[in-house]
């Protein structure tokens, strides 16, 4: 536990070392926030409610989603770091260390997510709330459930990323699968458009996937339209995905380690 | 000029050949990039699944904007997309090597890579262009037919000018490349939508400061013979090539000036 804490702190500090990159990333998210907010405002000139989201919910979605994307790791510079370490053979050093790779990676990722939450997601949301009219839950309970949901989303995000990265144990070139996974992350998590806007059964089906558990689920809880009307069910679904992905990651890691050939060693 | 073009073709040709050694890998990445960029069109499709129009633009009309913006951006990305890695050149000091060689610095940076996978982005844009042209009703004239390739070429130059001018920020701030993303990727995203739906201050910026409105919006108004809700002079519909040339000249000046003030990271 002590080790996890220390690793998480280092995960945080690693990103804290480059404040310029944080401001630049925040600036980009804010620009996209403005663009998507104006697009959705134009959409809501012709509809009052879409998939349970009214205009204030939709604007809240924009400013939460733009910040959460970096927290849960929809895409980003470090996304395929582990795959690259497998490709270069550096993973051999990781495997020699007396610690569990998966757990250590998770601990560092939690630190990273914490940094992004404090320095990107929160400022982003505050700015959006100051400039636009958006939904602000009145009861503290909803905020608490939202926070729990975000924490679970971070675990699910890690689970997906870890699994995709492991493909490099089998493939020499990991870029194809990584690009496809990021595409799935963007569309199916609701980062491009709220899943609530998807037509018919798609709005429900897409929300059952682990991708939705990374982004759409916390936002649904925030605006008060969780899938099936039950916040508890959505949280349980997120937790199930987090556990299932972690277990799958463990299995694949074991299999991959067994077959790993270090290039040129 | 012709000698430089030959050198560029040779350098880039070598890059392409080396990538085509790994055909399956390139093919997978090409499909991946196509699907990844198609996510932006998913957003448009989802919007139109809920409402019949955006501003006063129909699905087919927005698809035309999207196609023009995407194909132009794909061309720019293909040629200079690796400017994303330019801050790394500054940080690692490899830009010094470029300065001692007897070729223009920008040409060398641009020729330093050529990612074949980015063709996927253009293919996806072309697919949407076909859909758009099949959906909208256009009163075709020779001018309107020519307007499409001209708009794409001008759009690519405008994106390129913005990208090059902003990449020079790396001479001063090395860890802020994402700042450039806001304008390049953000700009490409914005040009996919009718400018009229954005707030006044944003419209002012994309018409008069960072001329993104000339990538797709004004040419599309001409092709579709649509009224400009911005109420700007009709001549602007034909101004894209002029704007593209002016922007390129300005970007080249910014680059030259930045290189003159460059101080190496190392000794």
Write a structural description.
The complex is a heterodimer of chains A (265) and B (267). Chain A is mainly α. Helix content of chain A is 72%, strand content 2%. Chain A contains 12 helices and 2 strands. Chain A has helices at residues 2-16, 19-43, 55-72, 81-88, 91-96, 101-131, 140-166, 175-188, 202-205, 210-214, 216-223, 231-259; strands spanning 49-50, 53-54. Chain A starts with a helix and ends in a 6-residue tail after the last helix. With 267 residues, chain B is mostly helical. Chain B has one domain (2-265). Chain B starts with a helix and ends in a 7-residue tail after the last helix. At the A-B interface, helix 2 and helix 8 of A face helix 2 and helix 9 of B.
Layout of helices and strands, plus pairs?
The complex is a heterodimer of chains A (265) and B (267).
Chain A: H1 2-16, H2 19-43, E1 49-50, E2 53-54, H3 55-72, H4 81-88, H5 91-96, H6 101-131, H7 140-166, H8 175-188, H9 202-205, H10 210-214, H11 216-223, H12 231-259
Antiparallel strand pairs in A: 1-2
Helix pairs in contact in A: 1-6, 2-3, 2-6, 3-6, 4-7, 6-7, 7-11, 7-12
Chain B: H1 2-20, H2 23-50, H3 59-80, H4 86-92, H5 95-100, H6 105-111, H7 119-135, H8 142-167, H9 177-191, H10 200-209, H11 217-224, H12 240-260
């Amino acid at each position: 536990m002590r080790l996890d804490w220390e690793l998480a702190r280092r995960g945080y500090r690693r990103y804290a070392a480059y404040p310029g990159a944080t401001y630049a990333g925040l600036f980009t998210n804010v620009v996209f926030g403005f663009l998507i907010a104006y697009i959705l405002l134009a959409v809501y000139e012709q509809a009052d409610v879409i998939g349970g989201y009214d205009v204030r919910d939709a604007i809240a979605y924009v400013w939460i989603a733009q910040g959460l994307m970096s927290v849960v790791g929809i895409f980003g510079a470090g996304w395929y770091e582990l795959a690259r370490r497998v490709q270069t053979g550096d993973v051999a050093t990781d495997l020699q260390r007396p610690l569990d790779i998966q757990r250590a990676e998770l601990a560092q990722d939690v630190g990273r997510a914490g940094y992004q939450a404090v320095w990107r997601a929160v400022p982003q949301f505050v700015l959006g709330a100051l400039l636009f009219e958006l939904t602000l839950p009145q009861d503290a309970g909803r905020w608490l459930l939202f926070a729990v949901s975000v924490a679970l989303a971070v675990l699910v995000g890690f689970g997906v990323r870890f699994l995709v990265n492991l493909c490099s144990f089998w493939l020499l070139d990991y870029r194809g699968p990584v690009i496809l996974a990021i595409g799935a992350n963007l569309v199916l998590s609701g980062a491009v458009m709220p899943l609530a806007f998807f037509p018919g059964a798609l709005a429900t089906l897409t929300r059952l996937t682990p991708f939705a558990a990374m982004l759409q689920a916390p936002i649904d809880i925030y605006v008060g339209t969780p899938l099936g009307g039950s916040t508890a069910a959505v949280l349980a679904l997120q937790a199930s995905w987090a556990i299932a992905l972690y277990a799958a990651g463990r299995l694949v890691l074991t299999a991959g380690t067994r077959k790993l050939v270090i290039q040129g060693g | 000029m012709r000698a430089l073009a030959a050198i560029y073709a040779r350098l880039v040709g070598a890059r392409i050949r080396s990538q085509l050694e790994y055909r399956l890998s390139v093919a997978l990445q090409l499909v991946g990039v196509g699907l990844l960029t198609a996510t932006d069109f998913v957003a448009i499709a989802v919007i139109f699944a809920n409402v019949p129009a955006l501003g006063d633009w129909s699905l087919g009309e927005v698809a035309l904007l999207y196609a023009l913006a995407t194909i132009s951006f794909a061309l720019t990305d293909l040629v200079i997309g690796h400017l994303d890695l330019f801050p790394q050149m500054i940080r690692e000091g490899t830009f010094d090597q470029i300065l001692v060689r007897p070729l223009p610095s920008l040409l060398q940076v641009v020729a330093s890579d050529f990612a074949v996978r980015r063709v996927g982005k253009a293919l996806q844009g072309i697919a949407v262009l076909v859909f758009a042209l099949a959906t909208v009703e256009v009163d075709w004239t020779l001018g309107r037919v020519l307007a499409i390739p001209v708009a794409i070429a001008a759009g690519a130059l405008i994106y390129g000018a913005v990208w090059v001018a902003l990449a020079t920020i790396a001479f001063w701030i090395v860890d802020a490349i994402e700042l450039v993303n806001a304008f390049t990727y953000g700009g490409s995203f914005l040009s996919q939508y009718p400018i009229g739906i954005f707030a006044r201050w944003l419209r002012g910026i994309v018409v008069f400061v960072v001329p993104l409105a000339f990538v797709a919006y004004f040419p599309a108004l001409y092709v579709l013979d649509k009224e400009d809700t911005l109420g700007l002079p009709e001549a602007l519909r034909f101004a894209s090539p002029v704007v593209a040339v002016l922007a390129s000249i300005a970007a080249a000046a910014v680059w030259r000036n930045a290189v003159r003030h460059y101080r190496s990271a190392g000794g």
